[in-house]
Amino acid sequence: MEIAPGAHHFPGYFELERQRAIVGACRALVDGAVPAYVPTVRGGGKMHVRMLCLGRHWNGQTYRYEPTRSDFDQLPVPALPASFRALAAEIAGAAGMVLAADLCILNYYDMDGRMGLHQDKDESEPSLAAGLPVVSISLGDTARFLFGGLKRRDPVEMILLTSGDAFVFGGPARLRFHGVTKILPGTAPAELGLSGRFNLTFRQYEI
Ligand code: SIN
Ligand code: MN
Predict the structure, then answer these.
(1) Would you say the CB of residue 145 lies under 6 angstroms from ligand 1?
(2) Whose CA is nearest to atom 5 of ligand 1?
(3) Share of the chain above pLDDT 90, in %
(4) Mean pLDDT of the region 136-157
(5) How many A from CA of 190 to the centre of ligand 1?
(6) Which residues face 200 on adjacent strands?
(7) How large is the greatest C-alpha to C-alpha distance in the chain, in angstroms?
(8) Is there an atom of ligand 1 within 6 Å of 162 CB?
(9) CB proximity list for 30: less than 8 A, separation 6 or greater
(10) Please, which residues bridge with residue 65 across strands?
(11) Which of 6, 62, 88, 126 has the largest count of CB atoms under 10 Å?
């Protein structure tokens, strides 16, 4: 479903077994040797998610990508698993786009998780100029996702992202503002055994 030029929502893209497999991989990663953490951003505020970057690390102080987590524990960023990269390519293809993702930001939202309205604009200039998409996968509890325009004050649409949904924004939609206002606790499929929500956003920095 194309909700705006370049923006596609695929409700229920992943059936339960695939969701379960991705959730298992996410769990292992966020509690792995290089674990997810709560970033402190410029200005000193803490984010309301637990974040783990794969492939390239997004530094919450500089808003730049780097190979080691220099804003946190100096550890090298874990690799982006090939299976994850394949998921991103598959979903981009379903939206008629091409993505050779080289990084993923994996966020865990607990019941108080949220993310203010922002643009994804820290990827390379050529990547942004080409409109290479952001591919998003949602698992677990439903999120109230806001999708706005190219200016912060533009009207926003509220979209419920439920477990198994995919969302793609590229081309003319690549720099649209978006955010998460609320997680709806207890809405995850029971079979996942997950309270809270995982969201993966794939991007391609290098072009
Ligand atoms: C993000 O904008 O980075 C995350 C969006 C989401 O959690 O759906
Ligand atoms: Mn974003």
Answers:
(1) yes
(2) 179
(3) 100
(4) 98
(5) 23
(6) 106, 137
(7) 42
(8) no
(9) 36, 50, 52, 106, 108
(10) 58
(11) 88
Identify the band that residue 145 occupies on the pLDDT scale cut at 50, 70 and 90: very high
Residue 126: pLDDT band by 50, 70, 90 thresholds?
very high
CA 197 to centroid of ligand 2, rounded, Å: 15
Whether the CB of 161 sits within 6 Å of ligand 1: yes
pLDDT in tens, 174-199: 999 999 999 999 999 999 999 999 99
